[in-house]
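User: When convenient, might I ask for sequence and structure tokens for a protein?

AI:
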Amino acid sequence: MGNREDLLAGAKKCLYEKGYARTTARDIASAADVFAPVHESTGGADGFVSIEVSPLLAADTAGTIAEAKQLHAKLARPNVLIKVPATPEGLPAIEELIAAGVSVNVTLIFSVEVYAQVAEAYLRGLERRLAAGGDILHPGADQTQQIPADDPQGGNFRPSHIGPHATQTLHHALTLIPDRRFRT
């Protein structure tokens, strides 16, 4: 029999998987259905609903990827975004999920440097998706709301729908990616 901490960790995981995750997924599906007309009428620019991967996976790249793909498949709606934390383990998950066509909402971005790392993971994911013949142009297909871009190379980027502080942060973050050419 394991120690007390192992038992508590197992109980938390079980409660999350059996209760919270199931109920939340059902609620998110309902909310996505309510917002579907907004999503459709705005051409995919609005009407999104987000669901997060388990916080217990914040330091687990493979677990984050697996749960995000499972949620994406289970909910199967173009206006559902899967929240992934911008932790060191979350960054490769973001790239992999974007490459796989999972819509991502990146959370826990607390610095310009992390913002630049997220932008780079996002762009690498788009490049991989494009190289594999995937669709990168239709909102909801492979877009992230955290780093909006209409061109996988960044050449036509226009931060028109985000606020001035976010725009300044994004401009600064993009200058930290030396091998990209952005016109802002």
About this structure: The radius of gyration is 17 Å. The domain at 4-175 is CATH 3.20.20.70 (TIM Barrel).
